[in-house]
């Protein structure tokens, strides 16, 4: 169980699978560790609502949640009852955006994804490998 003083960074990227657009949602902690990844077919409020509910079941509620200006994220947090926790700004979500770079490199190396199940598995493996080898500068003197 995580401490409640942490900040979550929620973000989504689109991934093409056989020409169809799918969305990979990710939650990153302020220290850079990827908490969760989730694949959906749409980017609406219903899809945005599933992800924070899944996060709240597994981890304690964060103090603040940084998102981009996607309206469905704000609507989802409002439905959960935490609209005051959302912070949206130009550079606030940079932590989550940087975590997509390693995923994109791996996706290019695989030369395309063909199934949604494979995308979820690939994202989970990328997250676990990155978190294992992640050595933030703040951890060392």
UniProtKB/TrEMBL annotation:
Gene Ontology MF term list: endonuclease activity
Keyword Nuclease: yes
Coiled-coil residue windows: none
Residue span, DDE domain: 6-133
Keywords of this entry: Endonuclease, Hydrolase, Nuclease
PANTHER family: BLL1675 PROTEIN
Name of the protein described by the UniProt record: DDE superfamily endonuclease
Species: Aliiruegeria haliotis
Lineage of the species this protein comes from: Bacteria, Pseudomonadati, Pseudomonadota, Alphaproteobacteria, Rhodobacterales
């Amino acid at each position: 169980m995580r401490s409640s003083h942490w900040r979550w960074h929620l973000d989504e990227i689109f991934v093409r699978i056989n020409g169809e657009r799918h969305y990979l949602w990710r939650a990153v902690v302020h220290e850079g560790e990827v908490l969760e990844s989730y694949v959906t077919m749409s980017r609406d409020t219903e899809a945005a609502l599933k992800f924070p509910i899944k996060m709240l079941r597994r981890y304690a509620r964060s103090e603040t949640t940084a998102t981009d200006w996607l309206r469905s994220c704000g609507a989802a947090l409002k439905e959960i009852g935490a609209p005051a926790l959302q912070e949206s700004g130009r550079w606030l979500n940079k932590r989550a955006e940087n975590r997509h770079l390693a995923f994109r490199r791996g996706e290019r190396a695989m030369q395309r994804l063909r199934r949604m199940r494979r995308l979820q598995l690939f994202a989970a493996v990328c997250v676990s490998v990155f978190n294992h080898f992640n050595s933030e500068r703040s951890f060392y003197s």
